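2024-03-11 09:14:02 INFO worker-7 job=invfold-0412 stage=load source=structure_tokens
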């Protein structure tokens, strides 16, 4: 049970850190990809990747 809580808390922290733009970018990108709008899906995935890059960069800066 504690492992499930840890996973849920990690996902929740990721969504909070990523913001609505990152989470929405992932969901919209998947939806667009499924419906065949691959160029627009790439734009949405780019927003998602940018938000994750910001999280990674801030995590690395906090370690230094």
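2024-03-11 09:14:09 INFO worker-7 stage=emit residues=64
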């Amino acid at each position: 049970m504690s492992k499930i809580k840890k996973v849920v808390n990690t996902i929740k922290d990721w969504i909070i850190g990523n913001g609505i733009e990152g989470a929405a970018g992932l969901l919209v990108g998947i939806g667009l990809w499924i419906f065949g709008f691959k160029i627009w899906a790439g734009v949405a995935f780019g927003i998602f990747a940018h938000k994750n890059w910001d999280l990674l960069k801030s995590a690395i800066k906090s370690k230094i």
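2024-03-11 09:14:09 INFO worker-7 stage=report msg="The two ends are 34 Å apart (CA to CA)."
2024-03-11 09:14:10 INFO worker-7 job finished
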